Give the backbone structure.
Amino acid sequence: RETLPARALPTDRAENDPQSPEHNTATMMTLAHAAVVAPVASRVAIPKRVGAARAAGARVLRGASRPTANKMTLGSRPRPLRALVIRADAEADAAVAEVDSKADALGNDEDMVAKVKARVLAKVAAKKAAKKKKLQEQGLLADDDDEEGDEFAPVAAVPGQAKPKAKKKKTRKYIKPDGTEVELEEEDEDEEEEPYVPPPPPPVAPNKCTFHIEIETNFGDHLCLTGGHPLLGDWSPVNGVPMDWVEGNKWKVTVPLPAHQLIQYKYVVRSGWAPDGETRWQGGPDGMISTGPEHSSVEIHDKPQWHSWGDGHPSVKAVPAAVEAFQKVKAPENWEMRTNVSELPKWAREAVFYQIFPLGYFGAPTVNDQKLPVNPRLKQIRQHYKHFRELGIDAVYFSPLFESGTHGYDTFDYFQIDRRLGDVELFKEIVKELHDIGIKVVLDGVFNHTGKQHFAFKDLREKGAHASEFGNWYHIGARKWDYEGWCSTDSIKGTGFSYDCWEGHPVLPRLNLDEPAVKNHIFDVARFWIKEVGIDGWRLDVAHEIHPDFWREFRRVCDDARPDGSCLLVGEMIHGNYNGWVGNDRLHSGTNYQMSHATWHSLNEHNYEYFYSALMREANLFKGLSLVNFLGNHDVPRIASNLTNPAHYTHAMVVLCLMKGIPCLYYGDEFGMEGRPEDGTDEHSGGDDAMRRPMLDCAKPATWPAIGQSRLALN
């Protein structure tokens, strides 16, 4: 029997949390004993009971007849078989009772009742046989452990079966003696999973209160808001609300608070994220907020006060006195502070991702003039399936594949594969082949901007913003200084329009995602690749620059296209607080840039306090999230180039694999491929082509860098 790979087994206990003291010991024990534990663990899953005995109102009638046979005594059977027989007996009795209760509907015809009884009993017998076989396969029953004869013999099916009307119930038609039909609802034989229902959002206090303040802080410090309410941490800085840095010395945070309340609050500067870290409290009187009626919002702009006014100062004494007097008339509402939680699709919870930048991976030309014939370079990936299996990856994340002009992020056509790589039909084959070897497929969705050859922007350029039906698809201005990009109109010489473009790059005009037609276009793209091609998820480019409400709509579209909830959505998050974008009604996860930097930088500088602080920040801010961890990707220097000491390569990889979240390995990093932006030569990618070079030959270790060759010794 095959054993599981040496990796930590999933558990709901505390030791599964990387922040818990038990984690290190439990992980080492699990890894060391995986070969012993795996065969046992593979046998402990007992099939879930689904039988007629669970039917509401089922009653066993005394004297209900059923076929019997001589059999061994119950006590002499193996324990799993005893449980199986007892369960089958109960299900059979309940099934017969249910048929008897429906005798009137069958016209009390004895032959018809007998046929229906025979059918349901045959179904119970078939289910019992299937479960017995499964127990034998799991090693819980020897092949010769059996009964002396079968309790229920299968009989021929009664004709006239109707299509199922529910997941676990189906309606079957029977013909009564008078020729009329009757429909009876029966349990289906297949044990199907329950349909996916997104978890309901937790209740939220009705009012939104946004706090703004300008405070100078030192490197490593952060600001939090605390006060006299559970939603503000009940005066505990550790349980308070972390504020988001905006720019310079500006901070803000939006907090849900109950209506018609008077609440005290204060700002606290925390050094690091450790519970016992240093704190610096705001001086002067406490702040005081009066919330309005339900569903109202309040903006508060405070100025910092740091010197003490003394407890006897009238203003200091007045605030708590006012709150106490208010609460004597209206008791405070004790809303519970809830952690933002995002549940991943089941397949992604234990998955290891592998990122491919296709245009570089397969050695495609850097420019697409749209005149080249289709080149099926994607076929090369078939040579790497064995490598994928040896790595133990569960999902391949493809960076941009859509028809584009240069690096893939200047999309021309969302419904076509880039001609430098192949076509849709070829990619469908590859998706199916990857699925056949147990690997999911995630695509890069670049929906913040397009290329200038996208059909909507081409129409704008040809007709002008005033005449094109796509005038609202982009952010357009009449004057050159309105936006950074400028486009001359083809139809009327001397005229043109300015347009917003991503980070000032004229080849990347930004879409207006508030326009319904644009939304529908993007949603059609999502449906096509999920339903027609069969992908399993999206990595969404610059997701933090798009309003979370758009991602809520996008999530609903993807859940509708994949009703079992298995379509994963990962947003590119570079900085800030991910909780606004990641949650059960929007994106499932985000890219964990802060831990990527902390990992290699702390190894280079031997500054493990920085690494610890980053872990504590994640534990505080993103306790309910599973983020995508990485050491390198197509936009940052490769890990082998970032590390000053090659010996730390293995340490970094261990951190990637054991850290809380989804590990994502960038192609070639397993071989120690190197690359920095300053080494690049392609003008269209700003030097990033150095991190996007063709994949090495997996079958020739002698051609790998030294780090990659040393990895073989670890194997």
Summary: The chain has a mean pLDDT of 79. The radius of gyration is 32 Å. The CA atoms of residues 3 and 35 lie 6 Å apart.
